[in-house]
Amino acid sequence: MxxxxxxxxxxxxxxxxxQDHEVRYEAKKEGVSxxxxxxxxxxxxxxxxxxxxxxxxH
Length: 58
Prior knowledge:
By secondary structure, this protein is mainly alpha-helical.
């Protein structure tokens, strides 16, 4: 697991819905809007696999 500059663990298997850069990355990767990603995180949780599955459902 990678660490942040503060020494914290960084989990790449999760999408932090409150972090604009993560939402932007996921939106660009999936070809959807940032709002769509935020809604998917809210409904499916922050697991990257679940968010991607939720986006592909719609």
